[in-house]
Structure prediction request, 168 residues.
Amino acid sequence: MTLNSKHKTQIVDLIIQQLQIRLKQCEEAANNAHLAAVDDQSVAETQYDTLAIESAYLAEGQSKRLLAIQAEINDYEAIKHVLDTKNKITIASLIYVYQQTKNQEETAHWYFIGPSAGGNKLKVLSHNVTIVTLASPLGKVLKGKSVDDEFELIIGKNIQQGFIDKVL
Prediction:
């Protein structure tokens, strides 16, 4: 069975689930780093003992990551209401493309254009779906294109050519 526009809701729900798992892991890491920063064992014994400072920086970084993941979850909650099928590639598009590598090998890929969390992969009905943002090199090339359009992606010395088969 192939993917269709009705699967976009399932894809968004799977992305949110993945992000919520990351959020919980990050919360745990932030809490552990905070506890390490204020632990009696972390008190500096010499001027060169920086364990407490390092733990505090780690806790701060984890807290910032928490906010970023929560923002990604909010992004996906917001697009749940705009999953209607479009003719041109934009946020919330589910697309199927054929790409040709430099070795002339042709591969087919499903991509979901998301507002964030680019690079994550999901499995939907035995199909691999990769999340791509419009800020990524591939997203920039695909933005605004339609079914039957061709594209060329240049990264360094590598050139990939592709053909858009479906836009859902």
Q: What stands out?
A: The chain is about 40% helix and 25% strand. The mean pLDDT is 88. Residues 76 and 96 are 21 Å apart (CA to CA). The beta strands are 94-100, 106-114, 121-124, 127-133, 150-155, 158-167.
